[in-house]
Design goal:
21% strand, alpha/beta, eight-stranded mixed β-sheet
């Protein structure tokens, strides 16, 4: 219930403050494990993706945020998974795989950090690892534009990538990561 209330408030704020366009939301599966993988241009990206989907989702948040009174409690109740950035956080990976195995949707920015020049950086293999271990479909996404009222921000969801099918074809995590990067790049150029 809290998630829906907060999402409604944030959605109202975003649509009042920014010109928001969402394309392809219907491509997100209605059920089952899904990993949304997007480029990352701003700290405003996670709420943008969350308000642009019908399904509730989990997301990563840096562990320092959980130590802030009230904020830590709030983001925990909004399905945030704490992650220690800058090192391989096995506990965060374990929790994300568990969330996917339970049939949940998870948001990740596989670049690992925000881009400084707007170009898609190399992707880390954590997303493909989670998708393979969690049996999830990957939905590539691209955030384009500016967070303002003039030009606006556009979020485009691509067609789901069936990771199980790719593994059955002999593809490994590196192959899946390369394919994911190509899909996100294609969405950015569309």
């Amino acid at each position: 219930m809290l998630y829906k209330v907060v999402r409604g408030i944030v959605k109202g704020f975003y649509h009042t403050r920014f010109k928001v366009n969402v394309i392809g939301e219907e491509r997100i599966p209605d059920s089952g494990p899904v990993l949304i993988c997007s480029n990352h241009i701003s700290e405003l990206d996670p709420p943008l993706v969350a308000i642009s989907t019908k399904r509730e989702m989990s997301f990563f948040a840096k562990s320092e945020l959980f130590k802030i009174p009230l904020l830590g409690n709030l983001i925990s109740r909004l399905n945030a998974i704490p992650v220690d950035r800058g090192k391989g956080d096995r506990q965060a990976l374990k929790k994300s795989v568990e969330a996917l195995k339970e049939g949940n949707m998870l948001l990740i920015f596989p670049e690992g950090s925000r881009t400084k020049d707007g170009k898609l950086q190399d992707l880390q293999q954590g997303a493909s690892f989670m998708a393979v271990k969690g049996g999830a479909k990957i939905v590539p996404a691209a955030i384009k534009g500016k967070y303002n009222r003039q030009k606006g921000i556009t979020l485009v969801f691509g067609r789901p990538i069936d990771v199980n099918e790719l593994v059955a074809q002999g593809k490994n995590r590196k192959d899946i990561t390369v394919e994911l990067k190509e899909e996100i790049n294609n969405l950015l150029l569309s």
